[in-house]
Amino acid sequence: MLPRTPYRNSSAHLTRDERLQCQTLRLAGHTHKYIANLLNLTERQVGYVIASEQVTPKKRPGRPRILTDAQVDELEEYVQSSRATR
C-alpha cells in the first residue's frame, strides 16, 4: 500500500486527464482506495468519476456576458482613440 499523502484542494474540479487516469486504473483492476492514494484524490472523487463513466467533464455554468464581442471591440476602439474626443 502506498503512503498516505495530503489531498489536493477538494474544491478543485478534476481535469479530463485525471478522470481518464481514474477510469483506466479501475479497468486495470485497482481499488478505489489505491487510485485515490496514487492520484492524491479522495475516494469519493474516484467513485464519482467511475460511476459517471464520462471522461470529459461537464462545462461549468457561469454568468452570461453582458456585452457582445462587437460592443467590446467598439469600447476598445473608443478608449484607444484620441484623448480630445473622449
UniProtKB/TrEMBL annotation:
InterPro entries assigned to the protein according to its UniProt record, in alphabetical order: Homeodomain-like_sf (IPR009057)
SUPFAM superfamilies listed in its UniProt record: Homeodomain-like
Protein name: Transposase IS30-like HTH domain-containing protein
